[in-house]
Amino acid sequence: MRRFLLQRAIRAVLTLAILSVVIFALARATGDPLTLILPPEASAEDRANVSQELGLDRPWVVQYGRFIGHVLVGDFGISLYHRQPVNELIRDRLPNSMRLAGFAMAVAILLAFPLGVLAAARKDTLFDRGDQVIAILGQSVPTFWLGVVLIETVASRLQWFPPGDIGGLDHYILPGFTLGWFVVAGMMRLLRSGMIEVLDAEYVKLARIKGVIERRVIWQHALKNALIPVVTFMGMYFAILVANAIVVETVFAWPGMGRLAYEAITTRDFPVIQAVVLVAALIVTVANLAIDALYVVIDPRIRHAG
Amino acid sequence: MAPPLLAVRDLSTHIVTKWGTVRAVDGVSFTVAAGETLGLVGESGSGKSMTCLSLLRLVPKAARIVAGEALLEGEDLLQLPEADMTRVRGKQIAMILQDPMSSLNPVFTIGMQVREPVAQHQGLRGAALTRRAVELLAAVGIPSPEARLQAFPHQMSGGMRQRAVGAMAIAAPPRVLIADEPTTSLDVTIQAQYLRLLRELQARHNLAMIFVTHDLGIVARMCERVAIMYAGRIVETGPTRRIWSAPAHPYTQALLGSVPGIGVARRKLTAIDGQPPDAAAVPSGCAFHPRCPHALPRCAVEAPPEVAVAPDQKARCWLVTPHG
Predict the structure, then answer these.
(1) pLDDT tens digits, residue range A98-113?
(2) Stretch among A136-140, B30-34, B291-295 having the lowest mean pLDDT
(3) B120 with A211: Cβ contact below 8 A
(4) Chain A residues within an 8 Å CB radius of B173
(5) Which of B99, B117, B155 sits opposite A210 (nearest CB)?
(6) Which residue of chain B comes nearest to A203, CA vs CA?
(7) Which residue of A192, A202, A205, B193 is most buried, as measured by CB atoms within 10 A?
(8) B157 touches chain A (CB under 8 A)
(9) Which residues on A lie below 8 Å from B102 (Cβ)?
């Protein structure tokens, strides 16, 4: 078990290291930031000065070395656009994103579990068919479209919930639902197919033979086994959630990391892009490590291996 | 003779498929008394397991129990409301499945899985519950039972797992124990031990036992009476000794003739010609007639009724002559 977790941890660190190189290169591949920072009429001399001041004239390897050296001590540099330490920007935005993502994940789990499990238990009934429709809609309706439609209808026409910006709990409903929607669909389908398989297992048959009531057979005996594939995908869903946050936060004017990423990309604000992507990657990696640990809790066969 | 504890009459369970209705169990009748073992013998697909699952009303979704009654001390299990079945399952009728590798839940401890029926059927909690679970594991011969409570199924051997399943089965303890090929997937030496264990448990709790198998050697050792199934019907039933020495039905004769060391010594082994019938297309009349060496024209047309060959032996065959 310890070896299993150690292996995963080493892999996580390697992932982050490779990612830092990729994101550093990609950010520079999008174009010259000087064209955005300086007015169009700036002289060649001005350009050279600013370039030197920001260290943009140095070779990429040197720039990367400096970048990674600072990152390791937790310094992401100064935003080219906001003229403000990137750390401050992230400190302001990150909690907002975490709260929204947490809310979305909670919505997803609260909807997906009953829907997925009951669809399997009532396979081929009307309930199951309805579930399938929800699942298909969930995986095919684009997030930005859903967000805009919800703002237009629920927020604007019906005025049930505010259309955006951060605030009380009612502000979380629409962006949270939009963000969690995709995850609901995927998780629900995984639970359904997992449960259908497990409900056919001999140990479920034996549980029924022992006289265990059906509710316990489903929610305890079967579900714990069906959780294993769901947990596997949980990490991926979390990554999708983080990626979708860029769209959702932009649509709902949510002052989080996603919108910060969007702004940084449109202004070619390298330090911010790098920081946002790295922080997001770090979060996804840590979440995946936590999920690996969760595996160990759920499946005793992993706990006792290695 | 004591009245039977369990009396099954004309039980029929059908499976509806795209290709038609399969009569998996077709008018099966038998009785078992407390302390007695009835062997239910037949080839794969002859309806043995489906008969047992019908008693517990746990047949697969596509299957329907369409007729018959199953009287447990006079109460018809097939008429009980579903909610009452949880006090029948595990409490009055317990069952051991074939493969101990897959019949235990891999993500729960043995302790949890043994405690569960005890908590449900005897209402024990806390320390008393654990004490009883340990007792049960000890009763089925699992060494260091306290330590085993924390073990997961994958940490135990097949024989030990099957013993644990046995412990769950006798938790209540039940009146009827159904053993569905309980030793098929065990090593031969472990098999013998397990059969002895079942005998002990039966004697201790005066269980009526239904022993499902296709192993005729085990039947000879375990069962006082035997019912031979073919294509969903019981074709012959009677005391094991009597049937082993004087089988009346050609299928029983062929079955015994295909096993070494049973019945007449030192004779040639014979195979039964042909294949077991396709469940969806069971032959008309007597289902065995296409493979029967003695088949008459009538056998293909009309199913034979059950005839008493001897006072306690019955067979479904046109060839047998009623006694008396």
Answers:
(1) 999 999 999 999 999 9
(2) A136-140
(3) yes
(4) none
(5) B117
(6) B103
(7) A192
(8) no
(9) 201-203
Q: Do A299 and B107 touch (CB under 8 A)?
A: yes
Confidence of residue B289 (pLDDT cuts 50, 70, 90): very high
pLDDT for position A170: 82
Q: Of A295-304, B69-78, B288-297, where does mean pLDDT reach its minimum?
A: A295-304
pLDDT for B267: 63
What is the domain partition of chain B in residue ranges?
6-92+172-316
* DSSP track, chain A: -HHHHHHHHHHHHHHHHHHHHHHHHHHHHT--THHHHS-TT--HHHHHHHHHHTTTTS-HHHHHHHHHHHHHTT---B-TTT-SBHHHHHHHHHHHHHHHHHHHHHHHHHHHHHHHHHHHHTTTSHHHHHHHHHHHHHHHS-HHHHHHHHIIIIIIIS--S--SSS-STHHHHHHHHHHHHHHHHHHHHHHHHHHHHHHTSHHHHHHHHTT--HHHIIIIIIHHHHHHHHHHHHHHHHHHHHHHHHHHHHHTT--SHHHHHHHHHHTT-HHHHHHHHHHHHHHHHHHHHHHHHHHHHH-HHHHT--
pTM recorded for the entire structure: 0.85
**Residue range B43-83, pLDDT digits in tens:** 888 999 999 999 999 999 889 999 999 999 999 999 999 99
Structural domains in chain A, sorted by start: 87-265 (1.10.3720.10)
Mean pLDDT of chain B: 92
Q: How confident is the model at residue B261 (pLDDT cuts 50, 70, 90)?
A: low
Sign of CA dihedral A218, A219, A222, A223: positive
- Phi then psi dihedrals of residue A172, to 5 deg: -80, -25
Which residue in B53, B107, B154, B178 has the most chain A C-beta atoms within 10 A of its own C-beta, making it the best mutation to test that interface? B107
CA distance B250 to chain A (A): 35
- Would the CB atoms of A211 and B121 count as touching at under 8 Å? yes
Give me the residue from A202, A225, A301 closest to B99, CB to CB: A202
CATH number listed for the domain at residues B6-92+172-316: 3.40.50.300
**Measured between CA atoms, how close is A5 to chain B, in angstroms?**
19
Across the interface, do A213 and B86 touch by the CB < 8 Å criterion?
yes
> Which of A244, A223, A249 lies closest to A112 in space, CA to CA?
A223
In angstroms, rounded to a whole number, what is the distance separating the alpha carbons of residues B120 and B90? 9
* pLDDT for the residue numbered B2: 60
Which chain B positions have a beta carbon within 8 Å of A211's beta carbon? 86-91, 117, 120-121
Q: Look-up: residue for tokens 């992507």?
A: A277
Whole-number average pLDDT of chain A: 87
pLDDT band at B266; cut points 50, 70, 90: low
Instruction: Count CB pairs under 8 A between chains A and B.
Output: 77
